[in-house]
Design goal:
The complex is a heterodimer.
Chain A (H helix, E strand, L loop, with lengths): L1 H9 L3 E5 L8 H9 L6 E5 L5 E2 L2 E2 L13 E4 L6 H11 L3 E4 L10 H17 L3 E2 L6 E3 L4 E2 L11 E8 L2 H14 L3 E6 L8 H11 L5 E6 L5 H10 L6 E5 L13 H5 L2 H11 L3 E3 L2 H13 L7 E6 L2 H11 L5 E2 L4 H10 L10 E2 L7 H13 L5 E7 L7 H9 L9 E6 L6 H7 L5 E3 L3 H18 L10
Parallel strand pairs in A: 1-2, 1-5, 5-6, 6-7, 10-11, 10-12, 12-13, 13-14, 15-16, 15-17, 15-18, 18-19, 19-20
Antiparallel strand pairs in A: 3-4, 8-9, 8-11
Chain B lengths: L2 H10 L7 E4 L2 H11 L3 E6 L12 E5 L2 H18 L7 E6 L4 E10 L3 E8 L2 H6 L2 E5 L4 H9 L4 H5 L8 H17 L3 E12 L2 E4 L2 E5 L1
Antiparallel strand pairs in B: 1-4, 2-3, 2-4, 5-6, 5-8, 6-7, 8-9, 8-10
The chains are: A alpha/beta, B alpha+beta.
Chain lengths: ~475, ~210
């Protein structure tokens, strides 16, 4: 069945690029650029003109290849696509990525007719198709980049899968992921969703794809949203699912003579339906990435009580301020915890939560001790850890890296900010991020929001409970 | 289906409703008020009016026959002078409801199909759009979430609103969800208001569209 073929589609042993080219202004050029020197399987460039393409022997057609082709990437004109799909079917490829545009999405009704034909051909051969009208996909867990943007290969390999209804959002989030060290398993745009849609991919990523630990969705609109929601609901509790839904218009049906009809904005229904399906809705692309990153890297919190440990008082205060609006609160340390902190910090700063660790600026060992003590506190469910660079504390981040080596993985989430001018703490930050249950985000407020979202996810994933958060 | 008809229908389906009887004229209104027991509420009954409050079509806390007769004349008089050409069926005489007002509704969305809505009644719905939605059918956790999502949830929880039977509202939402699942011919529905108090949940007014 189709779902079984998806595994091979995403991790193919060989890839044919139909429409491969040496010419920069062809998408087949850029797909080749993504593959050559990166992909470890066999690459078959296909172009009837022959000759070498990207230094590799090209083939005039799929039929001319003697070996197996697992995945076909298609970047030929729309009119040539039906014939190409028949060739794929006859060759027995496991799946296709159809980059070509010019189908249902165009104004010309001929596009829709052509797409119907594609669907019929795909059905005939039981051929899963990503697209048409997609930039392709990137599978970082098995080093496959069959997109027309080779730079996606720079994203670190990790547990976040992003499935998007927009290629543009993949480019936005993919490049932000590189900058903000979000580690991904897969990145893909569904394009026109010929026969591979959200429900099939959710099933695959949750049930079959071990490297994926959290799934981020970007949704614009669906004709049959219940299929996605029912799939998510049937998978509740297995892997966290987060969604960014575009189209926030709140207009109900003003013609309705019923209160309910006039109040029911499309987004209001989506909001309720996503939560009903166990999916966490987020408001921005930034929040989508922050949440996915922390959920991938940290254990989920068991409650709402947060300790804020800050190298400077101010960032700690704004982090504390951000807790309550997100449904979290400052934890109250046990006596034993407070005594231990008092031993570690001289009484020249505030030692209760939020803790000002300023006096330990030059002593990363002490800072790690405070962190460990607070994580052991039974009244604390998670920690926000903040350190701003100053010339005098240059060695702080490296020291933290050193002492973290001996630390056991945290059983509670630590969301941190290490903020420094570019180039100064880059290496220690990269060494600390997403290790031992710590995720590093950009600002204290974003750290608080991500912590809150992890708590919401732990509630949403609970398949039995009815305990919920207040708004 | 409107007012008395809709309320009678929900009563026949086993839902708790406020006792409601139709009356075409003043004498009938007075008589039915006696049957129901004072105090009562009188409501304009016209297929052409959705917002009875705006049409000055509601009189509450009528404690005896004199009150009922005066209220009937006021409602009919205001309606006749303000709405020439619109149909008037008379009034609905209803047992006086009490407690917090809640709205429970349903619509059929072209993409989502049957959708259940709940919100705090009256001004909360009108002025603040304070409502939450779930797809039919719902489970218990959804019923609870629907209430907790409301901005006015604190009002439901506030002891000054009286001790409100939150579990009772959840049960009610679940029963409405089951009813809707069993009756796909229902296309749109307003139960507005539904009174919630320590004594339970009672439907006060209802509209339903089938198709």
């Amino acid at each position: 069945m189709m779902v079984e073929k998806l595994g091979r589609l995403f991790s193919p042993g060989s890839v044919a690029v139909i429409g491969a080219s040496n010419s920069f202004d062809k998408l087949g050029y850029h797909v080749m650029k993504s593959l050559v020197g990166n992909y470890r399987g066999e690459i078959f460039p296909i172009n009837p003109k022959g000759g070498k393409i990207w230094g590799l022997t090209s083939y005039p057609s799929l039929e001319a290849i003697s070996g197996d082709v697992h995945l076909a990437v298609i970047a030929v004109p729309a009119s040539a696509v039906p014939g190409t799909l028949h060739a794929c079917g006859r060759k027995g490829v496991s799946g296709a990525v159809l980059i070509t545009a010019g189908f249902r999405e165009i104004e010309d009704p001929g596009g829709t007719v052509l797409e119907e034909e594609l669907r019929r051909i795909a059905g005939q051969y039981d051929l899963p198709i990503i697209g048409p009208n997609t930039f392709g996909f990137v599978n970082l867990s098995s080093t496959v980049n069959v997109s027309f943007t080779s730079e996606f290969s720079r994203i670190e390999n990790g547990g976040v899968a992003l499935i998007s209804q927009s290629g543009g959002i993949c480019h936005l989030c993919g490049f932000l992921a590189i900058e903000q060290r979000v580690a991904m398993s897969k990145l893909m745009s569904l394009g026109n969703r010929c026969n591979v849609d959200f429900p099939e991919l959710l099933m695959h990523l949750v049930e079959k794809d071990d490297p994926t630990r959290v799934i981020a969705l970007y949704i614009e609109g669906l004709d049959e949203p219940r299929k996605l929601l029912e799939a998510a609901k049937s998978l509740r509790g297995k892997k966290p699912i987060i969604a960014l839904k575009a189209g926030k218009s709140e207009k109900g049906d003003s013609a309705s003579r019923f209160h309910t009809g006039s109040l029911a904005g499309n987004h209001a229904i989506w909001k309720g339906a996503l939560r009903q399906a166990g999916i966490l809705e987020v408001a921005t692309a930034e929040e989508l990435l922050d949440t996915a990153k922390t959920v991938d890297a940290c254990p989920l919190p068991g409650g709402t009580r947060v300790a804020v440990l800050s190298g400077q008082a101010g960032p700690g205060m704004i982090a504390s301020d951000a807790l309550e609006p997100h449904g979290l609160r400052l934890s109250r340390f046990s006596e034993a915890t407070q005594e231990r902190i008092n031993d570690l910090l001289p009484p020249i700063a505030i030692r209760t939560n939020p803790v000002d660790m300023g006096p330990s600026w030059y002593d990363p060992k002490n800072i790690i001790e405070i962190l460990k003590t607070v994580l052991d506190d039974e009244n604390t469910d998670g920690v926000i850890f903040l350190a701003m660079y100053a010339s005098a504390n240059l060695k702080l981040a490296e020291g933290v890296v050193e002492y973290m080596k001996a630390v056991d993985p945290f059983r509670k989430p630590v969301v941190a900010c290490f903020t420094a001018p570019p180039g100064i703490w880059d290496e220690p930050i990269a060494a600390l991020d997403r290790k031992k249950g710590m995720a590093i985000l950009s600002t204290p407020e974003r750290a608080a929001q991500a912590m809150a979202n992890m708590w919401k996810i732990s509630l949403l994933m609970n398949s039995k409970g009815v305990r919920t958060w207040d708004r | 289906m409107l007012s008395v008809d809709a309320i009678t229908f929900f009563e026949s389906q086993g839902f708790p409703v406020l006792k409601s009887l139709p009356a075409r004229d003043e004498d009938e209104a007075a008589g039915k008020a006696g049957t129901i027991g004072f105090p009562v509420t009188l409501k304009l009954s016209s297929p052409d009016v959705i917002h009875k409050t705006e049409a000055s079509g509601i009189r509450v806390s009528l404690k005896d026959e004199t009150d009922v007769r005066r209220a009937f004349r006021e409602i009919v008089g205001t309606f006749a002078s303000g709405n020439p050409g619109k149909r008037l069926d008379g009034v609905m005489v209803q047992e006086q409801g009490s407690g917090t007002e809640v709205i429970v509704g349903m619509l059929t969305d072209p993409q989502f199909g049957p959708v259940l809505m709940c919100g705090l009644g009256g001004i909360f719905v009108e002025a603040m759009n304070d409502v939450s939605f779930r797809l039919v059918p719902i489970e218990r956790r959804d019923a609870r979430d629907m209430l907790e999502e409301l901005k006015g949830y604190a009002v439901l929880r506030n002891p000054r609103s009286g001790s409100i039977d939150l579990t009772g509202i959840e049960d009610f939402l679940l029963r409405i969800s089951t009813f809707l699942k069993d009756h796909p011919e229902v296309r749109e529905m307003d139960l507005n208001p539904v009174f919630v108090s320590s004594r339970g949940v009672r439907i006060c007014d209802a509209r339903i569209k089938t198709g």
